[in-house]
Amino acid sequence: MKSTYSFEGLKVTAFESRRAAEIEKLILYHGGFPRVAPSMREVPISQSKEAFKFAKELIMDKYDMVILMTGVGTRTLVKAVSEKVEVKDFLSALKKTTIVARGPKPVAALRELKLKPNITVPEPNTWRNILTTLENETDLKGKMIAVQEYGISNKEFIAALRKKGAKVTKVPIYKWALPEDISPLKDAIKSISDSKEDIALFTSSQQIYHLFDVAPSKKKLKEGLKNTVIGSIGPTTTETLERFGLSADYEPDSPKMGNLVRETARIGSMLVNKKRTALNNGVDTNKWRAADMIWSKGSEKKRKEITKNSVFMKACRLEKTDYTPVWLMRQAGRYMREYREIRAETSFLDLCKTPELSAEVTLSAVDRLNVDAAIIFADILLIVEPLGVGLEFSKGEGPRIKRAVRSGKAVDRIKEFDPDSLNYVYDALKITRRALDPNKALIGFAGAPFTVASYMIEGGGSRNYENTKGLMYKDPGAWHVMMEKLSNATASYLNKQIKVGADVVQLFDSWVGCLSRDDYKEFVLPHMKKLISDIQKDTPVIHFGTGTAALLDLIKESRSQVIGIDWRVDLAKAWRQLGYDTAIQGNMDPVLLFSSPSEIRKRAKIILDKTKGRPGHIFNLGHGILPKTPVENVMALVDFVHEYTQK
User: Alpha-carbon distance 641 to 620, whole Å?
Assistant: First the structure.
């Protein structure tokens, strides 16, 4: 039996020891050619003076907290101390402390001992996660803390605990040693150094230390790794790779061996091709990021021709495709680990305004999900800053307009838009387009004038849009002046995005569904017609709105090439109403991504079957991905759309 995720015959080296046979079977199951080179063995410290001392002090109630780092270490600790103290006394004393379990394995070991942890550290269980969890739970100052160590001591973690005021005792239980027979490891190192392996999978940080300890030439090994895709089981292993000047090319969201093998198999061929293409184009693939990628040093004209014939661009033009293209609104967002790591160190606005970071989160989402288009990471309200109304993003409250526009005089004070004021967006687009696979389209975007105007008038979010509709009804002249200013600014903004690399642009009209048909015709449609007519003619425009079931025929009059619909609309009826001379995008309910993969596939099939195979359908959600969505469910959706519609 073969997996749907396949290495497609790639040579895959793994350095797992304890579960060597298991990882070999996993690689074979996923269509890889395995080489398993055990790189370490656990050596228990049978006469651990530190463990005996800790046990006696624990029984004397000298510790406030015990941090258990591994399941094996927890079991070994109990076995070791049993030589000097009664196990029941030891466990009774342990129960009186605050027991901290680093992930599910220590929890399982504690369960065998009929104990429960007081604090369980969530995945990915790094030392930083432990520290953050503890800080959220208790004050560490003055606490007596014992840390069950494994392998080598984590100096950074111990130092961080002490910096918080804790008094820390290290309790080493076992250490790592090289296997007694290192010939398989030597052979693997030679094969990687000679660039004969395709993928190297690391399931422990210690494997990396031993790999470089044994390597006869560290320089040659690193040169070979430039040609080899590196898979890391989790953040701790990735950090160790970075210490050796290496980047992980793939890391699963959940640090489990099965996930690492399965998910690397899913896009292994793509990763190998990408890394070797980058190396051939002069990129240092030992230490690199998604934004460093160079796909081609050829002409931009050639790149545009490749992109023009991609499945996404063909679907926009209603041409037949090999499969239904798919991308997802908010595909680079809080549900992704890569995004959260960057956001932990920078504000939302600073992320938008730092081209390298914006490009990185844009590209990371494409690589992780294997979607057919990237959408530049930005925000629909960036355009309001140069218009002079002020913008801030408050934690937990979302965007706020500092100077709301609620009168004709306020409309008159709106500044003339200078396209160059958003150069950081264009720079992000340039970086992204260079680093993005030419077979994938790059989507630029802006907020549609009605939605942006509503934000500017309301000052933030709104349920009933009293101020927006109030200005519309009481001073229609001022309203139309405001919409004209926004339409001109948006056209200028999007055309500049197209100039620097956007292949498609999308207009987000998230709030327009609050209008009646008559109001849409009078107050919005004329401006949308003008805006879309001002966008560069050979660039497809996607017009997306929510709550627009009653407006679809009017939206079509603005003549965008693609119309996006939300999940409340039946796709078959909507497309019939729009006519099959217009491409359609949508339209799964984002909340469905919280269900099971089987339910996701079932619901996606229903939507896809409604198209009856007509060209011109782009699969998407009916709105953006929600923050807590499981990333593995998103990947399952993308894979199903591709597989089910493959011609």
Answer: 10
Beta-strand pair 398-401/391-394: antiparallel
Phi, psi of 67 (to 5 degrees): -105, 115
The closest alpha carbon to 256, from 515, 31, 26, 95, belongs to 26
Ranges of the chain with pLDDT below 50: 1
| DSSP codes, 140-203 | -TT-EEEEEE-SS--HHHHHHHHHTT-EEEEEE-EEEE--S--HHHHHHHHHHHTT--SEEEES
What global pTM score does this model have?
A: 0.90
Instruction: Residue 224: give its domain's CATH number.
Output: 3.40.50.10090
| Residue pair 201/195 in contact by the 8 Å Cβ criterion | no
Answer yes or no: do 126 and 170 share one domain: yes
Interatomic CA distance for residues 611 and 605, integer angstroms: 10
The 10s digit of each residue's pLDDT in 286-314 is 999 999 999 988 778 899 999 999 999 99
CA–CA distance, 359 with 351 (Å, rounded to integer): 10
Element (H, E) at 506: strand 504-509
372-390 burial by CB neighbour count: b if 16+ within 10 A, else e? Answer: bbbbbbbbbbbbbbbbebe
Give domain status of residue 475, yes or no.
Answer: yes
- Counting the structural domains of the chain, the total is 3
Which residues are part of the catalytic machinery? 330, 334, 343, 379, 455
